[in-house]
Amino acid sequence: MAETQSYHDRDGSIWFDGKLVPWRDAEVHVLTHALHYASSVFEGQRAYNGEIFKLDEHSQRLHNSANLLGFQIPWTAEEISAACREVLKANELADAYMRPVAWLGSERMGVSPSGTKTHLAIAAWEWGKYFHPDKARDGIRLTIAPWRRPAPYTAPVHSKASGLYMIAMLSRKHAEDTGFDDALMFDWRGQVAEATGANAFFVRDGVLYTPTPDCFLDGITRRTVIGLARNRGIEVVEKAIWPDELESFEQMFLTGSAAEVTPVGSAGPWRFEVGDLTRQLAKDYDDLVNGRIANQ
Question: Are residues 138 and 60 in the same domain?
Fold first, then answer.
């Protein structure tokens, strides 16, 4: 399915509040609380060859994200996983991107969520690489985001909450408007954090470095790649990384369910090579999600 087709006008089925409904019928009211006050959490996950990678982890994280926003999802993580599989089967998809999303409804209006109902929907569609394969092969180009990741005491930073993606959206738009593929975000202290929707890794002298996720998501793909690296005997260091350290790194790549493992050629003024370690971990990840090596 072409990505230019509107997402509201497609064939297929979406799981909506406990049952499959025709794609075009999966609608919410304009006065939905989540639309006005960002009371929404979501997941992004991929299916490969009919199997949804790390599905149970994604379903549990959706619950955790909702809890951090103060609302409960009335379906268990196990029921959400089963619904995801049902959606994949109903749409006859083998390789797909999936979007479970939970939100508060339109029963009440006002900042307080009291009296609102929690809703849950799950959609899936064919979606190729997050970044164009030619760009990813040579390393994508990042600018430096004009917005910073907030401090943990100012926002529920460990929730995959829609509201936290406002600054990511603005930063990504800024990047694309100025000729870049994405943006590298710093945090409120000025330390390196992540890209707009993916975690960051760096390589120096055969050692893998990644920022400590104390104000942004510790991604499922991030943890997977750390495991793959350690299985190869590669030392992995999680630490605070300041911008002036970036010039000492030889390689950089991003990780995420959408981005998978994507090499970076530049970030602002800093240049990186697409080296052997990056290529190896990208291959290891591809082998893992496609079942060519045992799941971790």
Answer: no
CB 197 within 8 A of CB 208: no
Q: Which of 31, 138, 15 is nearest to 82 (CA)?
A: 15
Percentage helix, strand, coil for the chain under 3-state DSSP, each rounded to 5: 30, 30, 40
CATH of the domain at 45: 3.30.470.10
Model confidence, pTM: 0.95
**Which residue in 19, 54, 129, 160 is the catalytic one?**
160
Q: Where are the alpha helices (DSSP H) in the chain?
A: 33-37, 55-68, 77-90, 133-138, 166-177, 220-231, 276-289
Q: Which residues neighbour 5 within 8 Å (Cβ) at sequence distance 6 or greater?
A: none
For residue 125 the two structure tokens come to 């569609």
Q: Is residue 217 part of a domain?
A: yes
CA angle 58, 61, 67 (to 5 degrees): 150
Q: How confident is the model at residue 3 (pLDDT cuts 50, 70, 90)?
A: low
Rounded to 5 degrees, φ, ψ at 118 are -85, 130
pLDDT at 17 over 50: yes
Q: Say which CATH number the domain at 268 has.
A: 3.20.10.10
> Is residue 239 among the annotated active site residues?
no
10 Å Cβ neighbour count for 173? 12
